[in-house]
Amino acid sequence: MLRNTRLTVVVVLGVGVVMLSAAGLGEMLPGRDGALASAVIKNADGQAVGSLQLEDAGNGKSKITVGVTNLPVGYHGFHVHAKGVCDPHSTDPATGSPFFSAGGHFDLGSHPHDHHTGDLPSLLVGADGTGTASVVTDRFRASQLFDGDGSAVVIHALADNHANIPDRYRNAEGAAGPDAETLTAGDSGRRIACGVISGS
């Protein structure tokens, strides 16, 4: 029996279990005593559009919980990036995307997308501009995000295809499979929001 109108979808992916829902921002991230790290996520105009908390999930795993509001409806690429700098005036020379200061995807190695350490499932935003997600991953621990240049969480304009390009498609060179852009960021497009991850 339906008890309310909120829709919750559970998706099982390689990095863990993701819960996506439309909710009011006030419901998204209740206070948690176990938070090891957090971030305030802002758009390119400097307005807060969400927040993130990272907790120890045990057994070498980390739990990431994010809540957003006032974002475009649909799926958005959602990743941990390599540098803890969210400067909206730092733009990608090729695309003009803001938050170029956050660097590429956080990675403890030389992995292609979607095997970067900081690659996460796409974030679903509902028709009211809000969304939440909770992800459990064994790819990193909170302490690893606080290296010399820190880290940031970035939300992109488009969905992340996770480099899932079947061989029937061709890249610009005519070869089967993903092209360089897909292997870098999953064709998730411009960076529309960013938050520096800091210790709680």
Description of the molecule:
It is a single chain. The chain has 200 residues and is mainly β. It has a single domain (9-26, 35-199), classed as Superoxide dismutase, copper/zinc binding domain (Immunoglobulin-like). Helices cover 5% and strands 35% of the residues. It has helices at residues 25-28, 180-185; strands at residues 8-13, 16-21, 35-43, 48-58, 61-68, 74-76, 78-81, 123-125, 131-137, 152-156, 191-196, 198-199. The strands form 2 sheets. Strands 1, 2, 3, 4, 5, 7, 9, 10, 11 and 12 form a 10-stranded antiparallel β-sheet that branches. Strands 6-8 form a two-stranded antiparallel ribbon.
Reconstruct the topology from this structure.
Blueprint: E1 8-13, E2 16-21, H1 25-28, E3 35-43, E4 48-58, E5 61-68, E6 74-76, E7 78-81, E8 123-125, E9 131-137, E10 152-156, H2 180-185, E11 191-196, E12 198-199
In short:
This protein is mainly β and 200 residues long. The protein has helices spanning 25-28, 180-185, and strands spanning 8-13, 16-21, 35-43, 48-58, 61-68, 74-76, 78-81, 123-125, 131-137, 152-156, 191-196, 198-199.
CATH-assigned fold name: Immunoglobulin-like
Mean pLDDT: 79
Head-to-tail CA distance between termini? 40 Å
Q: How does the overall form come out from the CA principal axes?
A: globular
The number of E-state strands comes to 12
Which stretches are poorly predicted, pLDDT < 50 over at least 5 residues? Answer: 1-33
Strand portion, in percent?
A: 35-45%
SS class? mainly beta
Elements, N to C (H/E): EEHEEEEEEEEHEE
Biggest pleated sheet: 10 strands, antiparallel
Please tell me the total number of domains. Answer: 1
GO molecular function: copper ion binding; superoxide dismutase activity
Pfam families: Sod_Cu
Function: Destroys radicals which are normally produced within the cells and which are toxic to biological systems. May play a role in favoring mycobacterial survival in phagocytes.
Family: Belongs to the Cu-Zn superoxide dismutase family.
